[in-house]
Protein 1
Amino acid sequence: MKDVINFKEWFLQKHNTFEDSLNGENTYLMHQIRKEALENFNELPLPTLKDEDWRYTNISPLLKYNFNIVTKDAKISNDTIQNYRFNNLKSHLIVFVNGQFSAENSKLLNLPNGVVIGSLSDAIKNNPEIVEKYFNKNTTNNHQIFAALSTAYTKDGAFIYVPEGKIVEDPIHIIFITSAKDEKIITQPRNLFIAGKNSQLTIIEHYISDEENIYFTNAVTEIIVNENAVVDHVKFQEESKNAFHIARIEVNQERNSNFTSHSISLGGALTRNNFNATFNDEGGECTLNGLFLIEGEQLFDVHTLIDHAKPLCNSHEYYIGILDNKARGVFNGKVLVRPDAQKTNAFQKNKNIILSDQALINTKPELEIFADDVKCSHGATIGQMDEEAKFYLRSRGIADKTATAILIRAFSSDVIKSIKIKQIRNYLDELLSKRFSQ
Amino acid sequence: MLEIKNLHVNINGSEILKGINLKVNAGEVHAIMGPNGSGKSTLAQVLAGREDYKVTEGEVLYNGKNLLDLSPEDRAREGIFLAFQYPVEIPGVSNVNLLKTAVNEIRKYNGEEELDAIDFLDLIKEKMKLVELDQSFLKRSVNEGFSGGEKKRNEIFQMAVLNPRLAILDETDSGLDIDAIKVVANGVNKLRSKDNATIVVTHYQRLLNYIIPDFVHVLYNGRIVKSGGKELAMELEEKGYDWIKNGSEEVVSG
């Protein structure tokens, strides 16, 4: 039995072979970016439980494997993909299979002039100026080891560019499907979404697997919301229960921009979502909502940071956690209000329900407020199933399990109802009903 | 319809009901009165199937079936309805959804076809008039933000929609002003028929001016110590519960 090579060593060793495999797609710009990222990856230490940001999340299960970076092509039928389209939601569809763009499974509807929706690898060739302007501009990524790894291995991801004033009516549904059977692979989607001034679009980042195998999704998504643009974002994780998922989403908001995101997760073996939003100018609105539903021995960790770097911006955060069996959840919501960020409104709420004796949630707000004319609040609750409510429903003739399903859906309704896409709301309702009335 | 034989009920190690005997036939209204702590609510809750209460002795027959063997939802499906003393608030579950799910589960259990949205709405609009509730409350969450009177009216409204064979009203009048009591009583009276029965648990006599009982039982210290007709309620009102506490323990079967 082969010994497992040290996690960092493995990726450092494999990088040359990886870059060679890119053939003609390796531009000078990208090569420099990857090289610098690899250097950062080399220097940065892997997080341990002694690091504040990782104190509840032990990554040692992830370090047990050497994940294959380049894998053989896999074919996914359109029927399989169709199952994940939220009951026929009309949308532009972009599909990545095991990290590679799949033109056969993708389909775009009519788009306004100048809008580009496709793969990053194509954008590097066809829209190099845009890529150069926006790609990897967020310097935080350089100090985060998993983001550095993903950047060092940038090969593909979703690319969306909406020019000034354009409105994309239908949602852009991006599906990342992992289907590698027993081969333990790593996919590292590097996504870049740019909303031009006054533009509007809806993006769904959907991570799925139709198997229960072990693999590692290490994703980085950069979203630039320019002045007065409106971006509605949904991240949906429906992966293998044995998958590892580490993701970083960096949002930059310009003047008067409006960004809403819903992060829905059914978890994997270990999931860590880092979600950062920065207000670069006044008048911004940011909503970060989430719903996670975990069971078994799943671990789900979300760390958010909303940086009120400028005055007169509003942020709202509402995360709901449902935990069963021995699942463990972590919610860490940081709000930074810088000294000049007067007239900031920042509201944060985390509500959790524990359905078993051994489930555990660690919830921590971190409010760092340096301005004095602001309104900020945070609140967290952890509770159990309301037995009074359950008895009330049963006394009206409703079956025990149905009553549980009704109460769980009621518990989640605050976040579900704020999702703008009706088909996703319905899909979630059905999912919760089925999960709890069985 | 209902036969309670020598029922002993325990909660957290204390015995609350110490041998209840009661017979309720279709078409009858029975009032259960008694001072605080006598076990009135316990009796109501045990009949509905609340699991914290342990039955240590005795049996309860409902239409010949062993009631204590049935789950709370099955008791409801067999036609038992409890109007709660303190109806719980359930944010996120609308009044209309609760009722539609309940109505259809009960219909399914009894081999009837489920109602679609339109038929169901017609059914409840009719019943809402009975308790003077208006349409806006349908979409609101169950009991959320309701005043005491509204919560009690909601209980009677649900009763009207579910049309039970045995209704148990647990202190439906407590905390209500006279107008609210009249609305509640009116609703209950309109639903009375020769095929159903009602057990009215109450501390105060006033409700019984509007819901006229056929039988009145006085519960004291976990036992029914006195039974009689509606005049018994008036006597209690005049003499107070001390009269019972000091008097004899004779039990007259109803």
Protein 2
Amino acid sequence: MGYKALVNSQVRSAFNLIKDLAEDVTFVKKLDSSFNFNTLEAKVSSSVSVITKAVVTESKKVSEEHNAMNKLVMLKTQDIGDITAYDTLVLNGQNWKIGTSILSDGFVTIAEIHKEV
Amino acid sequence: MGKYTNLDSDVYSVFGTVGWKAEKIKTHPSNFIAIDTSTEFIRVSIIPSGNGVNRRSISGVLIIDIFTPSGSGPQRPSAIADKLDTYLSSKQLIVSSGIVIQFGNSTLGNTGNDKDNKALFRVAYTIPFNYFEVL
């Protein structure tokens, strides 16, 4: 087994070992999107859903002008692949938007998610 | 519809025409992130920030960010700006009864490498407009 496969295997084990600290989530990735300049509509023409686990490492409520909740979530990169801003994460039945800060070392991805509460 | 909605639909419709599509320049509006690996595209932002002659009129600027590969020189952004000029500079859009949009003359300014992707160079094409609506 190569090192990459070994690390991915250990990451998978770690997410399983922490049991319910890693929550079941559905990641909805946009595969293609377009904007129609005549109707002014943004359209996601294809997307894919990935069921995986996420660990919420930080929650922050910012309420200076409106009630926004921001979280940092850790995900298995091997499960979700490359993600982009405005993809969607379904956590505890609620839709969260992926923010513009996405950090990955190739094995674990840490992303900001945002929602009005 | 209100003046802002009309302004959006009328200005953005320029980039939905057969002629502009035939230029094969990827075009995105503000507040839209494309799933795209292109190294050349433009982003159109309408800034209706000036006064109008009546409550149904407004002036402002159209800012079009032109993204091209870093290190590839000034020729391509200028060529794209020239194409934009053919559709916008000193043009008058009479889009429907009682509504007219007049564009002025454009300017071009280098803003350097893009802050999010240093592999892209950004040039800002700016053109003022006046939107008139008869009361």
Protein 3
Amino acid sequence: MNIFVFVKRVPDTESKIRIHHETNSIVEEGLNFIISPNDEYAVEEALRLREAKGGQVTVLSVGPEGAAVILKKCLAMGADEAVLIKDDLKETYDGLRIAKMIAKAVEKKFSNFDLLLFGRQSVGADNSQVPSMVAELLGLPQANVVTKLEIEGKSGTASREIEGASEKVVFSLPAVVSAQKGLNEPRYETLKGIMAAKKKTIPVVSLEELGLVSDEVSPRVEVIKMETPAARQAGKIITGTPDEAAKQLASLLRNEAKVI
Amino acid sequence: MFLVFIETREGQIKKSSLETLGEAKRRAGELGEDVEAVLVGANMDCLNPEIFSSGASKVYLLENPQLARYSSQGFTAALALLVQVAAPKAIFFAATAMGKDLAPRLAAKLGVALASDCTKVAVREGKLEFTRPVYAGKAFLTFGLKSSPQIATLRPNVFAVSESRTAAGEVIKKDVAIPESVIKGQVAEVLKEKGEEIDVTEADVIVSGGRGLKGPENFALLKELSAIIPRSAVGASRSAVDSGWIGHQHQVGQTGKTVSPNLYLAFGISGAIQHLAGMSSSKFIVAVNKDPEAPIFKVADYGIVGDLFQVIPALKEEFKKLFE
């Protein structure tokens, strides 16, 4: 199988987010960047499929040169190749813009594939847009938020999470699949993998090479304001025995907060 | 005209679709626009009058036997055909599993940007302005879209259902032609997790547990408490999920689900930054924890410093009295 996995560099989930109010963007100085956690499940699934069925795993990221770090991590996990699609704009929160780049890259450079794997959502922009958009732009079926994936010949079956249930999606290959926690347990890089990854070069593809003119990839999301949420105030501490506290809490929730 | 996609599950309209319709009605009203609703499926005859009382003046039923079960490609094709003739200025979806799957696909087909998972919609100088949490709620982004139609998904449990007086409107049934080759993937069946009807993203009340529960068996306490409270669901912190105590679909936080219930009850959850990001937009927060220094108390409206194994049984008795 020929599998492409798309990964994104995002601020560590431990990070406190600060905002640059002149530019309405997050302050990047001092932030630790990681591979978006959902993308790790996608990488792991690709490696497992290759181990079971043979083939090749290529990892791609759209982003600045700094995104090469997460591609190295994927190589160290066991991916065969990695490619960076260089985009110097900071986060634009515009999923279609990124989807266009990915669809163009796949069409122009990597048109021979069985599966395009993504994380279900980048942890940051939190858009959940790119996998479905890429699927539409390339005319492929999609299965998003997947916790189980089986490939048999030229067709696939996935369990996809919905509210209070899961649904079984059946599709033909090639296809777009986005991974959710529960799909697998991502492996750690091995020392051998890290050493091997160091020796690999990561080709960089520019937007010009993909034939994308600036108008096509100019953001259509116009940021007006970015702010941190108003800090919540610490409230009332209820004291007394467990029975007294429970009684008081139930009464406050009904009569003061009026939420139950 | 604003078009709202109405989602059904087992023939029932989802509450989040009616909330979306309500918000569409309010914003469209400011712009002097009508609101129309659309359902996609096969043989839809069980149309609920709620759609009209929640704000729609017209309802389209797009039918094709191939659309009996959800398919992102089939539903996108059907909606695109309607968009072509009805030319809406805006299209709203609820940000449900289906809405999040379908809206980006339709946006890409129409070549427009999408506003995902919005928690606020406003009209400013004749244009729509969207606000949504980013970094799981550590920041909020307000923005406009420079493409038309304006497509957005709206977070469940945030917007109010509208109480309009319109009792009935026009129903337009359309058979949509979809070439068989379009649908290359489709839902084959829906598998229900036993006894779990409401997802944490849709619940009015979340009864959530963390490491303080000490083991998987103690999630039964939360399930018993949740069983007493109407429209409630059980949530969990990342460490409880990563310890294998409960399924990941219950996880609240930056790598799980971001939730906005009316009431969030946190038992034995210390309040790591990733967890706080995912639940801080809850309307009321209650924390029960042994450690008075736990960060969760900084965001809680009501706190009990104590042993959850003593507090939960007492609370169960009190809630039983309230809901009886």
